[in-house]
Amino acid sequence: MSTLSLRAPATLRDYLSLIKPGIVLGNLVSVVGGVGLATHGHAPVEGFFAILWGAALIISAGCVFNNYIDRDIDALMGRTHQRPLAQGRIGAASALTLGGVLLTTGLSILMARTSSLTVTIGVAGLVIYVGLYSLIFKRQSGLGTWVGSVAGAVPPLLGYTAFSHHFDLGAWLLLGIFCLWQIPHAYAIGILHLEDYRRAAIPVLPVTHGSAAVRARMLGYVTAFSVMTLLPAFSGLAGIPYFLVMSAVGLSWMGWTWSQRGIANDRRWARGHFVFSLAAIMSVNAMLVLSH
Hints:
Elements: H1 3-6, H2 12-18, H3 21-39, H4 45-69, H5 71-74, H6 84-87, H7 92-113, H8 116-140, H9 144-152, H10 154-164, H11 169-192, H12 194-199, H13 205-208, H14 211-234, H15 240-259, H16 266-290
Helix pairs in contact: 3-4, 3-10, 3-16, 4-7, 4-8, 4-10, 8-9, 8-10, 9-11, 10-11, 11-14, 11-16, 14-15, 15-16
């Protein structure tokens, strides 16, 4: 009996897992943050849901293509080896077809309801994430985290440019905030799943230079992000409540980083940064919507 015949058939849950719903949802929160900055928290309902749907489909397509590209290394990692492409429950052709349908539909929505700038940003984000990050830098260079951070900053830019129709100061600030946020977030994940990354030979900083190198640099990463989050207030794009909340979040994260510099348990240290990173980015998005 062939190995293929022993594999369980794909289920609806398998196909749903290809789009990584948790990642899509998290990115949609950032889309909302971008919309909030562009519209001062008062987006037209119809346009708001159009950008959400379009962005959700494009992000989903990127996740499917990423799953297809990573199917070999996913099979080597404990937290991903059960993914349907790694296990062969879904074939490559089926995954690529699903990704193509999602991408085409998402771009069609953006072309119909937003501007050429927003469509271009969506395409550029997909190329960076799938082409540069997933295919090249993730496997070959420690710069992969930084390249991936640019792709991670695309969702708020989609939301922002869908209503501003310009790549102006607000867009640049969003790009900076979300790029700088990705670094401590990604390195915390790298330490939490260090053995998986080593097994798959992914050259993230914790693998190539050790957890100590990440810990030595983390205060700088957190400080850069925290300062960047304050610039919308200084530029007049966000109000005093935004400034106060983000000041408190940034100082709390920096203070915690300093206070934990001597902790011996790397995983406990990384888990704390992971939690702080989620709280920080949720705070940014909430205050971009609420504080004007």
